[in-house]
Amino acid sequence: MTATYAIAVLPGDGIGPEVVQGALDVLDAAEARFGFTTTRNEVTAGANHYLATGELFDEVEEELRGADAVLFGSMGDPRVTPGILERGFILEMRQRFAQAANVRPVRLYPGVPTPIAGLTPERCDMVIVRENTEGAYVGRGSTVHAGTPNAVAMQESLNTYAGIERVVDFAFRLALGRRKKLTLCHKTNILVAAGQLWQQVVAEVGARYPEVETDYVHVDAMCFHLPLTPERFDVVVTDNLFGDIITDLGAVIQGGLGVATSANLNLDGSAPSMFEAIHGSAPDIAGTGAANPAGAILSLALMLGHLGEGEAARAVEAATVEVLAELPALAGPAMGMNTTEIGARIAELVRSGNANTDLVPDSLLGTLAALAPSRR
Asked: Where's the Isopropylmalate dehydrogenase-like domain (predicted)?
């Protein structure tokens, strides 16, 4: 019996619609080759919609909730005050859908240039697991005496045992299937209360996974070690804010934001997971064809792995890596192909089955998100 998946598509703003279209073209090719089908519901949201209607997440929540997975482009526009779309839509979706683990692979693929001299793919293959619903991103804060020299701003960071435990357990399970090493990244010498709770949870959960070695690195030290000795890390688990920062550094190491991908995973199947490239909306290059769709297409591979289509996920990953290695540059007109052409080339390799799957002998994207239950 042919499997059918309901996909909610959120193209969003800026380059989002362009890179998502590339992913959908590759999804067409994967369906044709591997025999599954999807129904796709394009959901209107983002800056233009907000400016016209004032609507954010509330108005589309139920529409999104009915999907098996959400494929997301980007959101953000200089016409909208910073924080409105990010907090009123993206963070709202992560929290209401209990997308507890933000999973960001940092993997240097063969043939992809990196600014780190001498770095090879064998030395750079890790996954950063970021707690995704708590920390400084709970949106709790206030300002008094705003606009005066006496202004005072307070921003809260919330850490709960339950919230930490669910993402730490996921990270241990992920490490168990990889190189069996987990590193906690925090700032325990300054953020003592939160840091002690994170350390307590890692120690208690780690007792259930004696095969996995545990390690600890301060977040500032992580910014030193990550580009110089990435081979030190296998699975890194960290809080929301620290994870947001170090994964952008990781993206640079692996070739840039245009090739970096992520999954926002609901860990109990109670709501859909969301898959997105980690770049922003880049309004300055929207419509120019200069955006690299690879991050969005690799996000599609993550989504396919999560839905149980691991073979298709590996084919999409391999095809994307092969095309990335063909590009003289990974951004802008110097790429040699525009956004549409890159997507079409990847789709062609997926459809034909000619992609070199030896480029991804252990398909991270094909298996990673499958650790979390899908809606099916």
From this structure: 6-346
Query: CA-to-CA distance for 187 and 238, rounded, in angstroms?
Result: 10
Distance from C-alpha of 334 to C-alpha of 322, rounded to nearest angstrom: 18
pLDDT digits 0-9 by tens, 50-100: 999 999 999 999 999 999 999 999 999 999 999 899 989 999 999 999 999
Phi, psi of 150, deg, nearest 5: -100, 15
Joined together, the tokens standing for residue 102 give 């933000």
Closest Cα to residue 214, out of 191, 196, 237, 244?
237
Amino acid in the structure at residue 274:
M
| Residues belonging to the chain | 376
pLDDT digits (tens, 9 = 90+) for 120-156: 999 999 999 999 999 998 878 889 999 999 999 998 9
Q: Cβ(135)–Cβ(159) under 8 Å?
A: yes
Which amino acid would we find at residue 328?
Answer: P
Could you give the residue numbers annotated as active site? 137, 187, 220, 244, 248
Its pTM stands at: 0.94
The amino acid present at 276, given as its one-letter code, is: E
Instruction: For residue 274, give the 3-state DSSP assignment.
Output: strand
Place of tokens 């910014």: 223
Closest CA to 77 of 365, 282, 272: 282
Quickly count: other Cβ atoms within 10 Å of residue 220's Cβ. Answer: 12
